[in-house]
Automatic annotation (TrEMBL):
<dbReference type="GO" id="GO:0046872">
    <property type="term" value="F:metal ion binding"/>
</dbReference>
<keyword id="KW-0479">Metal-binding</keyword>
<dbReference type="Pfam" id="PF01077">
    <property type="entry name" value="NIR_SIR"/>
</dbReference>
<keyword id="KW-0004">4Fe-4S</keyword>
<dbReference type="InterPro" id="IPR006066">
    <property type="entry name" value="NO2/SO3_Rdtase_FeS/sirohaem_BS"/>
</dbReference>
<keyword id="KW-0560">Oxidoreductase</keyword>
<dbReference type="GO" id="GO:0016491">
    <property type="term" value="F:oxidoreductase activity"/>
</dbReference>
<feature type="domain" description="Nitrite/sulphite reductase 4Fe-4S">
    <location>
        <begin position="139"/>
        <end position="291"/>
    </location>
</feature>
<feature type="domain" description="Nitrite/Sulfite reductase ferredoxin-like">
    <location>
        <begin position="57"/>
        <end position="130"/>
    </location>
</feature>
<feature type="domain" description="Nitrite/sulphite reductase 4Fe-4S">
    <location>
        <begin position="405"/>
        <end position="548"/>
    </location>
</feature>
<dbReference type="InterPro" id="IPR051329">
    <property type="entry name" value="NIR_SIR_4Fe-4S"/>
</dbReference>
<keyword id="KW-0349">Heme</keyword>
<dbReference type="InterPro" id="IPR006067">
    <property type="entry name" value="NO2/SO3_Rdtase_4Fe4S_dom"/>
</dbReference>
<comment type="similarity">
    <text>Belongs to the nitrite and sulfite reductase 4Fe-4S domain family.</text>
</comment>
<keyword id="KW-0408">Iron</keyword>
<feature type="domain" description="Nitrite/Sulfite reductase ferredoxin-like">
    <location>
        <begin position="329"/>
        <end position="391"/>
    </location>
</feature>
<protein>
    <submittedName>
        <fullName>Ferredoxin--nitrite reductase</fullName>
    </submittedName>
</protein>
Amino acid sequence: MAHKKEERKEDCYGDEVRDHILEFADNGGYEAIPEDERETWFTRFKFWGLFHQRDGQESYFMMRLTNASGILEPDQLRTIGEVAREYAKGPVANPEFGNGWIDLTTRQSVQLHWLKLEDIPEIWEQLEAAGVHSRSAGGDTMRNISGCPLHGKAEEFVEAGPLLERFEEELRTDDALANMPRKFNISASGCTVGCAQDSLNDIGFEPATKEIGGEEVRGFNVRIGGGLGGRQPRAATPLDVFVRPENAYEVGRGFVELYHDYGDRQNRSKNRARFFAEDWGMEKIRDTLQAEYVDFEMHTAGEDFREEYTYNAGRPVEDGQHDHVGVGDQKDGGNYVGLSVPVGRLPAEDAIELADLADEYGSGEVRLTRRQNPVIVDVADEDLAALLAEPLLETYPAEPSPFERGAMACTGTEFCSIALTETKARMARMLRWFNENVELPDDVGKIKMHYSGCTADCGQAMTADIGLQGMRARKNGEMVEAFDIGVGGGVGEDPSFIDWVQQRVPADEAPGAIRNLLEAYAAHRVDGQSFREWVDATAEEQLVEFCEPEETDFEAPYMADAKQSWYPFAESESAAAAGEGSAVPSDD
């Protein structure tokens, strides 16, 4: 028997949903949706990137935008910022971030909050006039295509841009494939840094080389079945397939169609592509692709470059690029400048100013990374010093502290109905506290600290040096917000997921626990040893002992329930919080 969400999608999904959204908007917005049909329509709205915000925020929506591999062409960021300034304002200002801002996501795109349904037609008109859209940004469909944000700008072993463009323009626009069993993530990268994080995607294309007919051919190896969430992370498995660049699209489309046709539509907690890949196995998937979906003879895997991967790979800074923050060389002789936006939240005025700087010092194009940061591209040597001296770069520096550089955070209870804890404001305050209270060795340029508000792990805590996942705990007889703390995650040649060293640590004791752990790292590490390397070399019982919870002078906001702390109309707790930390599905 199909899941109830399949029934909701059966009658109306994909492109036809847009007309209904416009009709509701023209007839009064939220109130025009029949009350007994709202849950059904909210499921359908997600295909167009429109998400109803959580209980207590009735009539407000989040919109997720889509822009393949993080490219925002000239004037697009400015338009997004102007839309946020005009429409993305709630009835109460966030005490940390104010009112009217954008969130940068871990799939290289943007989210807008506090939108009213009756404003959506005008918002779409403004965004789409600049070439920005929200189609296929949510729901059970192919999400934003991720890739190296600097493809076409930095050096690549194999050019990935044409493949990314075909995925965006041909595959994601195919309404016949709009209704997938679950959300589906695709990545492709031609660089040898590993920044597309192929191991975390449902299908990932990584640069590789293979001898075919006596000739060394450049192309892609294929991996499938990667993903996070539900305390059941999987690193993508090699499919043992090498494809030439001109054949890569057909293989990607073939696996999308295979999962569309054979994927489970009954058990949503076990029907992501990673479970499908595990159930079928690589041999059966490969044979079925060859027999039913691919018209050319596939080659076995070639030689990859995973040993060179440095992006969030837990290696020392001197080994190479571990993010896209800072100044870097473009292959045309220009420069890119990556800025650090802690927890990915950017006020609308700052987004507009950033667009102005991209126009003044670069080509106007801005690239977004998988670490919630923007990159200004095409900066000439003679303009670098002036750009780096701009006042905006004091707030979003190209040379941030190790804590700010490594920080990521999901939406949390501020807007998410399944989150257990507030995330972004708390993480912003913790970063300031760590900057003032924790001293790291001079050669430690980053500590990757990721914070997810629940086990769905949208903040990618599983792949961090220090991963935080929101939980609930009792302290002094009161239920409070808490973290599970894990260490030693990262991607790279051999992806690894964090090991939990403390569980249900009250939010006011967690910064002390992390400081104790980092002080132990500074005291006991070998010179040049990265945090992940130190964790790998340290016994688990020692790590548990080092990470001792401790109350400090850190003022923990929203200890009791973030949903009731500063939104006076939000009186109900989340479904996840009511379950006191039980695992929840990632259904974003």
